[in-house]
Amino acid sequence: MFEASDFEIFDEQTLAGRMALIRDVIDPKFEQFAEIALPILNQDGQSWFAHIAKHLRRTTYAPDNTWVAFAPNKRGYKMMPHFELGIWADHIYLYLAVEENMKPKQTAPIVSKLTAVSPMIANLPEQFVISQDHMVNQNVPLSAYEATVSRFENVKHSEVLIGIKIMRGDAYLGTSAVTEKLISALKTLLPIYEKLK
């Protein structure tokens, strides 16, 4: 599904050019992944939906990353815990995401839930990482989870995203192993999602 050549879309510097490549090259792969992921997610009794980023507010600069989000809401995903599969110029990621759009009304309940799953986060495999902002290409280790939750509670533009990265240059790109890794991560994160929803 995902190949080494997919990252070359970020070599295109113009907004129009990169958006055309995203739509032609990446979005169909997100749709393919959705066909595999949605039946797994639907097993929890909810109806899940795929939301492919459209980048409609972009008028000047080409997006540095793009993604598809999965949530049990047909109208949107940012206001609830959700899953996000995306690509940057140097990696593909799959995260369980709690984004800043859950603030301010839902901050206290979600912080309590994020705190309660700390032992589950600590038991994740070592390849899992944390992102504190889905729009910034930067990660911290799982050991920073409690600090990340505290930051989410106290800093306006902060988020809690937990998942895996598959780096550009990974030997398994272009094989089914990449999809298998992503699905395995999704299944590993599902019990944590169940505690957060």
Automatic annotation (TrEMBL):
Pfam families: DUF1054 (PF06335). InterPro entries: UPF0637, UPF0637_domain_sf. It comes from the Bacteria. Belongs to the UPF0637 family. This is UPF0637 protein C270_01805. The lineage of its organism: Bacteria, Bacillati, Bacillota, Bacilli, Lactobacillales.
